[in-house]
Write the C-alpha cells for this entry.
Amino acid sequence: TQLLEQSPQFLSIQEGENLTVYCNSSSVFSSLQWYRQEPGEGPVLLVTVVTGGEVKKLKRLTFQFGDARKDSSLHITAAQPGDTGLYLCAGPMDSNYQLIWGAGTKLIIKP
Amino acid sequence: DSGVTQTPKHLITATGQRVTLRCSPRSGDLSVYWYQQSLDQGLQFLIHYYNGEERAKGNILERFSAQQFPDLHSELNLSSLELGDSALYFCASSLSGSPSYNEQFFGPGTRLTVL
C-alpha cells in the first residue's frame, strides 16, 4: 500500500525563523506535488518535483525530491506570517488515476 | 480564483437526509475529483471522473454516489446522512485524466454540517 507520511504534524514558530517539513514514503513515486491550503479554502499547488535529487525554488521556499524518489522536503527560509497554512504533499498511485495525499503539516508563523 | 465553482458553499441538514453537491470545473478541464476533508485532517480522495467516465474510486461510502454530465459539471450525492459525514467537500479539476504531472485546481469547497 502506497502511503505518504508528513512530519511534523504541527509546527509553530516565530517570524524570521527557518524550518523544514518532510514527506516520506517506503514506495517510489514518479512525482510528488506540494500544495498549501489556507483556512476555509481549497489547496493550491506550489510545485511538482519529478526527477530524483531535483531541487526547486519558489522565492523563500525550497523543495527537494529524494534521490530514490521516496521522499521530499520543503524548506522555508525567514518564515513570514503569510506562510501560515496546511502544507500537503501528494503523489500518484500506481494506477495513475488518483493522487495519494499526506495528512499535512499545519504551520503557524507568529509575528 | 481557481476557476472551479462549487455550490452550495454551506449546507446544514439533518441525519438521514440526502443532499447534492455541485461542481463546475475550469473551462477546458476534463477531469473532476471529489475529496472529503474532516476537521484538521488531510484530504480523503472519493472519486475521479474523466470526460464523463469514472476513472478511479477511493474510500467512497456506498451511501455516496457521483456523476459527471456531458457539459462536464459533476454532482456528488450523499444519502442517509450521518453525523460523521460533516466535513468540507472539495471538488478539483485538471486538464487530463492523469493527475501525475497535472495540477489539480480546487474549488472553494462545500461545508456540510449534519445535525
